[in-house]
Amino acid sequence: SLAPVAAGPLAGRTVVVTAGGTREPLDPVRYLGNRSSGKQGVALALEAAAAGAQVHLIAGVMDIQAPVEQPNLSVERIETADQLQAAVLTAAEDADVLLMAAAVADFKPADYAAAKIKKTDDGASPVITLQRNPDILADTVQRRAQQHRGPKVIVGFAAETGDASTDPLELAQQKLARKGCELLVLNKVGENLVFGQDTTEIYILAADHVQQKLGETQAEHVAGSKQEAAAAVVARAAQLLRS
Ligand code: CTP
Ligand code: CA
Known about the structure:
This protein has 243 residues and is α/β, with parallel strands linked by helices. The chain has helices at residues 39-50, 81-92, 136-147, 168-179, 208-214, 226-242; strands at residues 14-19, 24-27, 30-32, 54-59, 73-77, 97-100, 107-109, 130-132, 153-160, 183-188, 199-206, 220-225. The chain has an eight-stranded mixed beta sheet with strand order 5-4-1-6-9-10-11-12, sandwiched between helices. A two-stranded antiparallel sheet has the order 2-3. The longest helix is centred in the C-terminal third of the chain and has 17 residues, at 226-242. The chain is globular and about 65 Å long. The chain starts with 13 loop residues before the first strand and ends with a helix. Its EC number is 4.1.1.36, 6.3.2.5.
């Protein structure tokens, strides 16, 4: 018998989702990591699959299990930002949507010590020099412009606390413009907020070029479960694809 043809707002579309955190090795037993749980990314992958898309989930280090692979959901595991970059480069080429929910380390140790770093008798502490990791999101946007192919809808994710002088929404607006992607999903973070939780509060911001096309200016606000937030993001991406 024939496999059922996927129905839903993303039927026939390919969606790449990145989730979780990266881990940057320092020596064979140590790494620099972050507190991303992977929950938002996994929720996005499941929502996109439920919307009928062919989904490729690129997952870093997560607190939760990766979803079980299905005919329309494949899972690839990575650890470092460099590995994530290589995986996104390959997967994004033929994708319609890229949802960049992974927490990518901005820096990695400049030198990997092949042998475990040991304490020394003089009581001195080692100095760890860092170097910048590639900006995978910004690079993907740039490559799309150069090669005239790649995802039509690229979505960035940012967790911002803001500070005394700057509102998180303002920071997110600036980040959206800097990255050049279509949408930016902002998580307002404070103590105990967002990381590892099942609920979240997001704002979906649209880039100027998207707003001009759709004639809208307001950031969409969603408070609820990470699954509800994911559904709103996926719906937005589907709407943009159709536009
Ligand atoms: N991102 C990425 N590559 C990086 C860092 C971030 O692709 N090296 C992506 C993230 O996956 C996310 C978006 O960029 O979708 C925003 O991440 P964020 O850390 O908020 O942005 P940065 O440009 O790193 O800014 P900041 O200095 O505030 O961390
Ligand atoms: Ca960062």
